[in-house]
Design a protein that fits this description.
The protein is an alpha+beta fold and about 180 residues long. It has two domains: about 35 residues; about 100 residues, HIT family, subunit A. Helices cover about 35% and strands about 15% of the residues. It has five helices and five strands, in the order αααβββαββα. A five-stranded antiparallel β-sheet has the order 1-2-3-5-4, covered by helices on one side. The chain is globular, with a radius of gyration of 24 Å.
Length: about 180
C-alpha cells in the first residue's frame, strides 16, 4: 500500500480526497487529449507522420503545410495541425486556435511571395476530412492595388452542398434579416 495514503488521518482526509479527485480528473483530461493527438485512421495524421507522401511546403513544431493534391488554383495548400483535432476548429482551445491562424497567415505570405500573387485567401470549412485544417487559395491575376471584383453570378444554398463559396446571393429581405438578427437578442 502506498505509504502516503496509508497514514491518512481524519484531519487530512478531505485534502487527500481532493488531491485524488484532481489527479484522476487531470488524468482523464490527459487521456482524452492523448487519444486526440493521433488518430490511426485519419489520413491527415498519416500525412503528418510521413506514412503518406505529401508535397510539404512548411513545417514547425505544431503545424505543417502541404500542397493540395486536387487544387482548384495553382498553389492551393492545406495547413494541418500535427496533433489530431476535430475539424470544427472553432471548438479548439483559444491558444492553439490562435497559433493555427498565425501559421496560416505566415504561409499565406510565403505563397504570395513564391507565387507572385498579391493575396491569398484563408478558408476553414472542415467538411472533407475530420482533422483540423485550413485551406489556402492563392488569388492569381489580381493587381497589387486593391480593386473590387464582383461576380455577376448569384447563389443561395438552403443546406450545405459540399463546398462554400464567396459568391453573393440574392438580396435578403428586411424580414429575413430581422428574423435572423432577433435570434441574437
Amino acid at each position: 500500500m502506498n505509504k502516503e495514503f496509508s497514514i491518512i488521518n481524519l484531519r487530512d482526509f478531505e485534502s487527500s480526497r481532493q488531491r485524488i479527485v484532481e489527479f484522476f480528473t487531470d488524468y482523464k483530461i490527459f487521456l482524452s487529449y492523448f487519444a486526440q493527438m493521433n488518430n490511426p485512421d485519419c489520413i491527415f495524421c498519416k500525412v503528418v507522420k510521413g506514412e503518406i507522401p505529401s508535397y510539404k511546403i512548411y513545417e514547425d513544431e505544431k503545424f505543417i503545410a502541404i500542397l493540395d493534391l486536387f487544387p482548384n488554383t495553382k498553389g492551393m495548400s492545406l495547413v494541418l495541425t500535427k496533433d489530431h483535432y476535430d475539424s470544427y476548429a472553432v471548438d479548439m482551445d483559444d491558444e492553439i486556435y490562435s497559433e493555427f491562424f498565425l501559421a496560416a497567415k505566415k504561409i499565406c505570405k510565403m505563397l504570395d511571395e513564391k507565387l507572385g500573387v498579391s493575396r491569398s485567401t484563408i478558408v476553414m470549412e472542415g467538411m472533407g476530412i475530420n482533422h483540423a485544417h485550413i485551406k489556402l487559395y492563392p488569388m492569381h491575376g489580381l493587381d497589387k492595388e486593391f480593386k473590387a471584383i464582383e461576380s455577376p453570378e448569384r447563389v443561395f444554398f438552403e443546406k450545405y452542398q459540399g463546398y462554400t463559396t464567396t459568391l453573393m446571393g440574392p438580396q435578403a429581405t428586411e424580414e429575413e434579416l430581422t428574423q435572423i438578427r432577433n435570434l441574437f437578442k
